[in-house]
Every structure is written in C-alpha cells, then in structure tokens.
Amino acid sequence: SQFTVSVHNPLCGDELHLDFSQVEGGFLIESMSGESCSVCQASSGLLFHKKLVWSKEEAERQKSVYSEYLE
After folding, report:
1. Each residue of 22-71: pLDDT tens digit?
2. pTM (2 decimals)?
C-alpha cells in the first residue's frame, strides 16, 4: 500500500511531498518532491537517504513534532 503525505510551511512557503509505502514493521519513504529552501531539502534528504522504516507510532510522533514546529 502506498500513499503520499504533503506538508506546507506557511512561514516560508516550503511545500514537500513524501511518498510512503507500507512495509513489514512500518512505513518507508520511497520518494520525495516539492519546492523548498536548501535547509528543508537537506533535512528531508537525510530522512530519505537513510531509508528509515517508521512504525505507525513513530510516524505519528514525527508528524506531531513537525506540526508543533510550524505553529
């Protein structure tokens, strides 16, 4: 099962799309796209290149941390 998560930073206008697939043990970032600054590209690139598999709980935690950052 694959799905896309899109995030938009209203402070600077960054927009990022992460394509995930469900794998054994959680979720894997398959690809990413969007328009963003070099800092956003670098940080999201680290997530993508590490090929992290997140559990549902960790994915929810990361979403919460990112959402708090944007407030």
Report:
1. 888 888 878 888 888 888 777 777 766 666 677 778 777 877 776 676 55
2. 0.60
Distance (Å, whole) CA 18 – CA 48: 9
Determine the 3-state secondary structure of 67 from DSSP.
Answer: helix
The one-letter code for the residue type at 63 is: K
The strand ranges marked E within the chain are 2-8, 15-23, 26-35, 53-54
CA distance 39 to 37: 6
Count of helices and strands (H, E) across the chain? 2, 4
The values of phi and psi at residue 13, to 5°, are 90, 0
